[in-house]
Amino acid sequence: MSTPKPTDLGGRALDFAMGVVEAPINGFERLMGRKRMPYLFLAPNLILFGIFTFLPIAIAVGYAFTGGTGLFVSERPFVGFDNFRQLLQCEDYFRPGSCRESLFWTAVWNTLWFVGFNVAATLLVALVTALILNRAMAARGFFRAMFFYPVLLSPVVIGLIWKWFLDRNGLLNAFLQMLGVPPEIFLLDVGWSRFFVVVVSVWFHMGFYTLILLAGLQAIPKDLYEAASIDAASPRRTLFRITLPLLGPNLLVVLILLMIRSVQIFDEAWVLTNGGGPGTANSFIVQYIYQMAFGSDLRLFGLASAASVLMGLVLLALTLIQLRLGRKMET
Fold first, then answer.
1. pLDDT tens digits for range 100-126
2. Distance from first CA to last CA of the chain, Å, rounded?
């Protein structure tokens, strides 16, 4: 009598396990039908997605039409559109001081300023980095990993690292003193603090967008570049006639993700600038929502929810516009 081999035992165990799993699946298939089976496998993810995404959205929309300071909806009176009127009541939208909620409109204009500079800078840096990393070079894998590494860190950690670096007694001022330059309080100056908020955001997130663009570059057929080389096309002409047009879908994805992420700026800016300072120079929309709901004793959940609903509608509109433009570009 021969002894079963370990491989035979493993195969039999696997067959037994698959048989145990297959029996209930076949039962569900007979009960639901083959066409409905995909919904059975999608159900756990859809349930979790609904609980942690759609349910909070519905709760926020519900809170936006209520007032008071109670936590539960049953304890909050219905006020209709009063929260939205309070946010939008303004004599001149270009002068936040003339608005009923001046802090909200200050945060709006600060966010628009940040979105403009951050999107442009991050897109440019990510594109240049992807073009460089796409070339044949020594230790290319190492440099790709190094550029992506900051994305893996926590935003709070990023804020603390750069805050230590930019502090009056930090590394940057120590280097400037070695050159004979007097120390600068970067984070207490409006201009410098805004500049470094953008720099930190670009440094933190550009690795993720670089990977998206790098994947698009590697999908471009090499024979197109060979044909351009045979036709003696200049590098500039190759870039604008081959690379960028074929990279269009990836650039559109990066642009949409960048705008959404830039509007939601909060963690690293909050830690870096000690809550949006100096003053309200770096106060953004998400910070306003946080302060109205949790940052003060007032607990204005209704006002904070109304601001978050307005921000969500703006992001949805921008995304739809960009997707429509993307379809036209592809056509």
1. 888 888 888 999 999 999 999 999 999
2. 71
φ and ψ at 179, to 5 degrees?
-90, 0
90 backbone dihedrals φ, ψ, rounded to 5°: -155, 140
If phi > 0 it is left, if psi is from -120 to 50 it is alpha, else beta; for residue 66 that is beta
- Distance from C-alpha of 54 to C-alpha of 198, rounded to nearest angstrom: 31
Query: In which element (H, E) is residue 225 found?
Result: helix 222-230
- pLDDT tens column, 194-204: 898 999 999 88
Q: Would you say 274 and 294 are in contact if contact means Cβ atoms under 8 Å apart?
A: no
Rounded distance, CA 233 to CA 240, Å? 11
pLDDT band, very low/low/confident/very high, at 177 (cuts 50, 70, 90): confident
Tokens (6 digits) for 93? 């939208």
How far is 279 from 203, CA to CA, in rounded Å? 25
The first and second tokens of residue 203, run together, are: 């440094």
Are 222 and 239 in contact, with CB atoms under 8 Å apart?
Answer: no
Q: Tell me how far apart the alpha carbons of residues 181 and 175 are, in angstroms, rounded to a whole number.
A: 9
> Where are the extended beta strands (E) located within the chain?
none
208 HSE (CA, 13 A, CB side): 15
- For 153, phi and psi rounded to 5 degrees? -85, 160
- Among residues 257, 246, 238, 241, the alpha carbon closest in space to that of 218 is found at 246
